[in-house]
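Work package 3, deliverable 3.1, input record:
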Amino acid sequence: MKATGSVFKYGDNVDTDVIIPARYLNSSDPAELATHCMEDIDKDFVKNVKKGDIIVANKNFGCGSSREHAPISIKAAGVSCVIAETFARIFYRNAINIGLPIVECPEAAVAISAGDEVEVDFDSGVITDKTTGQTFQGQPFPEFMQKIIKAEGLVNYINNK
Amino acid sequence: MGMTMTQKILAAHAGLESVEAGQLIEADLDLVLGNDITSPVAIKEMEKMQVDGVFHKDKIALVPDHFVPNKDIKSAEHCKCVREFAIKNQITNYFEVGEMGIEHALLPEKGLTVAGDVIIGADSHTCTYGALGAFSTGVGSTDMAAGMATGKAWFKVPSAIKFNLTGKLPEWVSGKDVILHIIGMIGVDGALYKSMEFVGDGIANLSMDDRFTIANMAIEAGGKNGIFPVDEKAIEYMKEHSTRQFTVYEADEDAVYDEEYTIDLSTLKSTIAFPHLPENTKTIDEITEDVKIDQVVIGSCTNGRIDDLRIAAKVLEGRHVAKGMRCIIIPATQAIYMQAMEEGLLKTFIQAGAVVSTPTCGPCLGGYMGILAEGERCVSTTNRNFVGRMGHVNSEVYLASPAVAAASAITGKISSPNQL
């Protein structure tokens, strides 16, 4: 499985309050949440994002609240993958559990620029910046998590067991 | 190799003799928690699972607390969804508005969390129960759904950082200052994926409410959990609040820690986290210019307990908040509200020009009951000061102890009680 798209780039500690502000948490509808995704860090994100696009950020992406609405809004906005130096642990779990692909790769997080065309191969973990021609090796998931990802989330994983 | 306190609890709940950092395990859960924001998503996910109902009707706690009393129609629909699920599944520990409280203050008070438990909650501050010697950690709604359906959750066994606390805190310095000091020292990802294990003879000098505050904000350093040893004070607290059996786990003497810090509590000062990260800390004497403020909030799962209100009342007694100041005080549970009433604290607050609200998370996450306008500043005893956390994207939150918050309400700028 591969994802290809152009990159939206952010810095350290992108928190769940800027990914989806609490003023919108009176809804749990993915489509509605998507219309406010990244609103407090990048008000043009929703206007500019296209299906398949990729978010690249530095360390501790998704820190703060446990709101699953954060990865849900990113996925529903059409984002195909989030690459970061590191993820906050609850966001990491949530992304895997709802089937939003994420990759930890410090080198890629630093080198990739906003607007670059990037391809991510989820099977090998290889990230290719097609704009610059650079490639990076992302951190592979432990086998257990790969099973959840292949089942497209925890619900299916439990149902399949 | 020896195990940390957290690792011992996890091993016991996974049916294993020992575990080591990095190992993936499946553990039995003693309690699964959700609130009015996270539970509706979990309920929807659970409906997709091929299960007949919840794993145990006594081991699930549903606490509508974020937007209750319902702030708008959409929130009312969420609460209705939680209420109907609770009734249908005969959930014992569903707390309606008149008996509720902010979840992390309420559950220990109701005796639902005890030493040795493994607890997950669809709220990041679930780590609070580490104060009692439980392993507790925040998860998302899908994990909550799986927990409610199966009574199990998967964990990657964490490594740990050891914090050796010695000595005794000075006057007006509290658990909030301890945890803000630590977050300032190690950063908002300083304990990423790790346990924060607190040890040392200084713990005996910390009240249970101080310990709840410290464990509560482990997540603000990126921690998976924060945990305290079970001493006489903790046992006394559990005996007073719970009828449940508890199990005391202790770290092995040869347990391995990634890092170790020693903190002499007597050297700590009132500490304030400046916008927009909890790690941007300054001690009160490092603030050289006046920081004028518009609002003060005293409450939340971090600092809405009776000790917090007593400290605030001690500062506000016989004084009045600055002209133009909005001082909002929120007891964290109905029982704390009642206790504050009986002790005369509510009268002190109202006479000082503060407003007292029914328990709610409301303003902490910019939900309602104290939203900030553009350019406004708030000193808050809550736990996060991210961009837009309490309202407008160009507003500011300064995190502080109840003592500093109350003193700041009086002067209209960031102050400590020593400066009054």
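The interface with chain B takes residues 13, 15, 17-18, 21-23, 25-28, 40-41, 59-60, 63-69, 71-72, 86, 88-90, 93-94, 97-98, 142, 144, 153-155, 158-159 of chain A (CB under 8 Å).
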